[in-house]
Design goal:
The structure holds four protein chains of four kinds.
Chain A (H helix, E strand, L loop, with lengths): L6 H12 L4 E6 L2 H5 L2 H14 L6 E6 L11 E5 L4 E4 L4 H13 L14 H4 L17 H6 L4 H9 L2 H11 L11 H10 L6 E6 L8 H8 L1 H15 L3 E6 L4 H16 L15 E6 L9 H8 L23 E5 H5 L1 H7 L1 H5 L9 E8 L5 E6 L4 H8 L9 E6 L5 E4 L9 H6 L8 E6 L4 H15 L5 H18 L5 H17 L3 H5 L2 H17 L8
Parallel strand pairs in A: 1-2, 5-6, 5-8, 6-7, 9-13
Antiparallel strand pairs in A: 1-3, 3-4, 9-10, 11-12, 11-13
Chain B lengths: L5 E6 L2 E6 L4 H8 L22 E4 L6 E2 L9 E4 L3 H17 L14 H9 L22 E3 L9 H10 L4 E4 L6 E4 L16 H5 L5 E3 L12 H12 L10
Chain C lengths: L26 H10 L7 H12 L4 H11 L3 H10 L11 E6 L2 H5 L2 H11 L6 E2 L5 E6 L11 E3 L2 E3 L4 H12 L4
Parallel strand pairs in C: 1-3
Antiparallel strand pairs in C: 1-4, 2-3, 4-5
Classes of the chains: A alpha/beta, B alpha+beta, C alpha+beta, D alpha/beta.
Chain lengths: ~550, ~250, ~180, ~180
């Protein structure tokens, strides 16, 4: 058996390597920037460095997401000693020009610079995304140099499993997947569960349209997830773990796969991790396109190779999960928070955010908003700060109409609630949910019944078909919404729609069905007049 | 006498004894308290999909399926409230709107659990639009007919074929509103190599979706209690069935 | 249903590679995956992924092959394969155009793009044109919401699309479009 | 006491419900004591009158005539009862719905099926155009009570009428609402 990685040594070596060259060029290689052409930019810079023999002068580092996707591809010039300059909307030609003028002539190009002093950057607090734009996701050394795996080492060598759970409890962290269940409670349940075989599952089946924080974590900081899983498994006595990833995220699968192999080679996974008695086997399982598999019992069915239909709870997974063994399912973002909590302590984490919603939350800002991208803010940040300060408000002279959170299970929050702090309870009170963190801003050109219909179509298509209200009820609600949007709806339709909302909400088997009416209920609550304005004047025939 | 340990539960405010581990539905049936149900079938696993048997439990705002809720001590169960009546009726309406249920021309007319549930839940008409799906009848089997127009996806046939007969001829394909039953690799039933012609699926079908060849309107009779008798024979080696089995 | 799906490695370690009656050696790649998964029944979805990568789509004989190898009832394999959106049963077209219809893309008019391509090439979303030239698909969310609306054409992700730009793109590869 | 004004109408149905109505036999005489049947396919009245207390509508809405008549009935009736399964649910009349566009069905029956001289029957004012989908009565007009059954047995019709004559709505619990 090979010796485990020496975290300290690797970290030192990596830090020294930083000062090997005068310049470091970091280019965002996340999916969003790659879509915008970052791959060609990275190639262009690497090419140029090689052709012009600047290897001793410049090192090119592809990194994870820097956050401001709408300004991508992003590139950061870092001079030894500190000075940093960020460039936006970089093309291959521009990248060459930047390197030439920055490195060779020492002249920055202000017209292409990105001002990192704007609130988008300064108002964030990054824990989960701390390594975004900084480390090279493909190199474990890069992660280690930024404190990676020190939390695992700390937990394994200095903490009893129970102490780890206590630290998580002190942190007060709640599940980032949507419902906000206290993480420590789940861990305690698994820890207390009987049996030798226990499983930890990382839920990376990020299905909410408009949310991509989990993908970003898996792609840009895969070791952070692995470290979180390892700590969770250690704390709960699990010996096997699965990472369930959507098939739509091939880069995440590829990077996680590599990261797992590298971690195993370095004795951070596998048998006798870091020469302790703790062993853990981690496997990736790939989804195949079913939103409902984000629901934990459906997810387990899918891991077992079956149709992803949810089953009734109880028994809860922590009593009887995968193949009947106790199983705990945590969201990817939740697990990404674990290492920092162990490193900095639960009290540090609890000091961020609000009393009941601690820590930070990552949001994917999109829609009718100036700055789109991934942001991370303390829980309880007012929605207005997110939309107006960080997001830069609605572009093109439009007016803010609503913010949609929680995807097809969430709701639309109107402008009068812009000052609401974003935390689990406040959003729920407004008829929406935190969800996985998609935050879509809509301007006054968007029709709310149309938006409700969009989400209902989603829920209808994604219903597994097991229970009657969700399978047939979503179809009926969609029909009615279609009629209303087409201008043929009647008062009776509106009444039936509202009744169906309560039927489907209260009688569906799983969270997907129970939450499917939320977009309708919340838009009816805040934008009822829009529905009424669309109703047909006369009695419709059928 | 049954000597299993018991717990005290309340059905609609009245105190009763429930066996430990017994489901709310089983207990209610034993006590003669009517709770409508469709996908539940004694002798096979619980599916919990039809949502007809929902009950209210204490302060839980969400309704619970009686078939899959285990009785625990001091549980306060409500089986009959205006809210439950309204919801059960809506679920029935959704089922009727979803398929093509034409009682007047159905083999199971008069001996249909779906029809009975409609009566029991007070469904006198369907508020929702009929989805009028286009579904092909499979009459390829020499002995049986499958009419998906009348299928409510209760999966009794799937479960009974897998769990009792061990053939697993049936399963559900696709999902959501497109979900439908298939035999083997979506082949005509008559071509199935694994079907043993045992007829259990037909016996347990709550509607006219599965029937014997050659039956005319109203001539079909099912025998869902067959599974309970089988289970008793198999698990408890009892071949002389208690009264309620028949 | 649970009994047949309990995790157990099938005792098929002695099977030979390439024993598919058709002699199609692509099945060897499927066999490799089956072996890697130790013929465990919970490997069904993984195996179907590999089979689809290899063959492009899941035809009936492939499903039967997988069912036999994993010792699963055919109806169950068919049920699982049809449950998941990403498995396709018909051969794909020469080119593929996937329009993201996630929330951000919806807000930015992705529906118009789908409708535009659909009408121009007479191909309903989710299907392949009659001449096999183009498959038009929609995706739930590609997670590139900052670049909405997003279109993926033959694997290339394209940001900030509209109907005209997408049609140009398709026309350049497929030709035509009316 | 004023005599109740009762009507029955026959839309897209087989008239079986009306046959069942006649099956009330001698009770019909009792009914005649307290009520007038002011319009019915089994009475010789051409125009649907005004001020009807209650109208029993048999049959679904299959064509434009049915629809027009239903609207007219609603305007002139205090109470409308959906009478029988076709009125309540579409029933047999609606079995064409899954087949889609009615013109395709008409073609199959009148053009493709006959050995010779197939043609689609159409004459304005005589053959009413089919509705795209057959509708149960309550999808077009407000319905006050439902009396399912194919046909509803005579005793159920009688129970419904007795309730209505008392000023109540027909029973809608238990066997009174069984379809089929």
């Amino acid at each position: 058996m090979a010796a485990p990685i020496d975290l300290h040594e690797v970290s030192e070596r990596e830090r020294e390597a930083r000062f090997r060259t005068r310049w470091r060029v970091k280019a965002c290689g996340s999916t969003a920037c790659i879509s915008a052409g970052a791959g060609a930019v990275i190639n262009a810079v690497e090419d140029m460095v090689e052709r012009e023999d600047m290897q001793l002068e410049v090192q090119v580092i592809p990194t994870g997401c820097m956050g401001l996707c709408s300004a991508g591809p992003l590139m950061r010039m870092m001079r030894r000693g500190g000075q940093e300059t960020d460039y936006q909307k970089v093309t291959p030609e521009l990248s060459r020009e930047i390197v030439r003028s920055h490195v060779i002539n020492e002249e920055p190009l202000p017209e292409h610079q990105l001002d990192t002093g704007i609130p988008f950057f300064t108002s964030q607090e990054r824990i989960v995304l701390a390594n975004g734009g900084i480390i090279n996701p493909d190199r474990i050394e890069s992660y280690v140099a930024h404190g990676g795996y020190s939390a695992l080492e700390k937990a394994l060598t200095t903490m009893k499993p129970k102490a780890v759970i206590d630290e998580i409890r002190t942190a007060g962290i709640r599940g980032r997947g949507g419902a906000g269940y206290p993480v420590a409670s789940k861990w305690s349940l698994l820890s207390a569960a009987a049996g030798d075989t226990k499983y930890v599952v990382a839920n990376g089946d990020e299905g909410d349209p408009g949310a991509y924080m989990d993908r970003t974590i898996m792609e840009d900081d895969p070791h952070r997830l692995i470290e979180g899983i390892a700590i969770a498994a250690y704390a709960t006595g699990a010996s096997d773990a699965y990472i369930y990833v959507r098939a739509e995220y091939p880069r995440a699968i590829e990077r996680l796969d590599r990261a797992i192999r590298v971690a195993r080679r370095n004795r951070l996974l596998g048998r006798r991790i870091l020469d302790t008695k703790f062993s853990l086997n981690v496997e990736i399982r790939i989804g195949a396109g079913a939103f409902v598999c984000g629901e934990e019992t459906a997810l387990m069915a899918s891991i077992e190779g079956r149709r992803g239909t949810p089953r009734l709870r109880p028994p809860y997974p922590t009593d009887s999960g995968l193949w009947g063994h106790p199983t705990m399912i945590n969201n990817v973002e939740t697990l990404a928070n674990i290492a920092p909590i162990i490193n900095n302590g639960g009290e540090w984490f609890a000091s961020i955010g609000t009393a009941k919603s601690t820590g930070t939350k990552v949001f994917a800002l999109a829609g009718d908003i100036t700055n789109t991208g991934l942001i991370e803010v303390p829980m309880g940040t007012p929605l207005r700060d997110i939309v107006e300060k960080i997001g830069g408000g609605v572009p093109d002279g439009g007016t803010f109409k609503a913010a949609q959170t929680g995807g097809p299970s969430g709701g639309c929050i109107p402008s009068k609630f812009l000052d609401t702090p974003v935390d689990y309870e406040s959003l729920r009170e407004l008829g929406s949910i935190m969800g996985s963190g998609g935050l879509i801003v809509m301007d006054d050109s968007q029709s709310m019944p149309d938006v409700a219909k969009f989400f209902m179509e989603f829920s209808m298509d994604e219903s597994c078909g097991k229970c009657t209200p969700c399978r047939a009820g979503t179809v009926q609600m969609h029909n009615i919404l279609q009629r209303i949007v087409d201008g043929h709806g009647t008062r009776g339709d509106l009444r039936d729609l509202e009744h169906l909302c309560t039927v489907v909400r209260d009688t569906s088997l799983c969270g997907l069905g129970q939450a499917a009416p939320n977009p309708v209920l919340s838009t009816l609550q805040y934008f009822r007049s829009e529905y009424e304005a669309l109703l047909a004047k006369e009695v419709a025939h059928g | 006498m049954d000597r299993r340990p018991t717990v005290t539960v309340h059905f609609d405010g009245v105190e009763h004894e429930a066996f430990v581990g017994e489901s709310v539905l089983e207990c209610a049936r034993r006590l003669g308290i009517p709770i409508p149900s469709l996908c539940f079938l004694e002798g096979i696993s619980v599916w919990g999909g039809c949502r007809v048997c929902v009950v209210e439990v204490a302060e839980d705002h969400r309704l619970r399926p009686a078939c899959a809720t285990t009785c625990v001590a001091d549980m306060e169960i409500k089986t009959e409230t205006p809210r439950l009546r309204a919801y059960r009726k809506s679920v029935l309406e959704l089922l009727f709107a979803e398929g093509n249920h034409v009682c007047a021309v159905c083999v199971s007319n008069g001996a249909c659990e779906l029809q009975d549930m409609a009566v029991q839940t007070g469904m006198d008409h369907v508020r929702y639009d009929p989805q009028s799906p286009k579904r092909q009848i499979d009459a390829s089997h020499p002995k049986y007919v499958f009419d998906p127009n009348r299928c409510i996806l209760c999966t009794r046939c799937v479960r009974v074929c897998d769990e009792i007969e061990g053939a697993h001829v049936w399963d559900i394909s696709y999902r959501g509103e497109s979900a439908h039953l298939i035999t083997e690799m979506n082949k005509p039933w008559g071509e199935s190599m694994s079907c043993t012609w045992c007829g259990k699926c037909v016996a347990v079908c709550p509607t006219g979706a599965l029937s014997y060849q050659g039956r005319a309107v109203g001539e079909m009779e099912h025998d869902p209690a067959m599974i309970k008798r089988l289970a008793l024979a198999r698990n408890r080696h009892e071949w002389l069935y208690p009264e309620e089995a028949k | 249903m649970s009994d047949t799906t309990t995790r157990r490695a099938a005792e098929t370690s002695g099977r030979q590679q390439g024993d598919h009656p058709s002699g199609d050696n692509r099945f060897e790649l499927v066999d490799k995956q089956l072996k890697r998964g130790r013929y465990s029944q919970d490997q069904l979805i993984e195996t179907l992924h590999v089979a689809q990568d290899v063959f492009g789509n899941l035809s009936e004989d492939i499903l039967v092959y997988v069912a036999r190898a994993l010792r699963l009832p055919p109806s169950m394999v068919y049920g699982v394969a049809t449950f998941y959106e990403l498995f396709t049963f018909d051969p794909p077209g020469d080119h593929s155009c996937t329009v993201c219809t996630g929330t951000a893309c919806f807000v930015k008019g992705a529906d118009d793009i789908v409708q535009g391509v659909s009408e121009a090439y007479d191909v309903p979303a989710g299907e392949t044109a009659a001449d096999g030239s183009l498959t038009l698909k929609t995706a739930r969310c590609l997670g590139s919401c900052g670049l909405a609306p997003v279109v993926v054409f033959d694997g290339e992700v394209l940001s900030h699309q509209n109907t005209e730009s997408t049609l140009e793109l398709v026309a350049a590869a497929v030709g035509g479009g009316s | 006491m004023t005599r109740a004004r009762i009507a029955t109408a026959w839309l897209g149905g087989c008239s079986g419900c009306h046959m069942s109505f006649l099956d009330m036999d001698e009770w019909l005489f009792e009914l005649a004591e307290v009520a007038d049947v002011v319009y019915s396919p089994i009475a010789d009245v051409k125009e649907f009158p005004q001020d009807v207390d209650v109208t029993f509508v048999e049959g679904a809405l299959a064509n434009e005539d049915n629809l027009r008549e239903a609207l007219h009935i609603r305007e002139n009736s205090r109470l409308v009862v959906a009478f029988g399964d076709c009125a309540v649910s579409g029933n047999v009349t609606a079995m064409r719905n899954p087949l889609g566009d009615p013109i395709e069905i008409v073609k199959a029956v009148y053009v493709d099926a006959p050995d010779r001289d197939g043609q689609i029957p159409e004459k304005e004012g005589i053959v009413p155009p089919l509705l795209p989908r057959v509708l149960p009565v309550h999808k077009a007009i407000r319905v006050d009570a439902f009396l399912p059954g194919c046909p509803p047995p005579a005793d159920r019709i009688q129970a419904a009428l007795e309730a209505l004559l008392e000023g109540a709505l027909p029973p809608n619990r238990g066997e009174a609402i069984r379809w089929g």
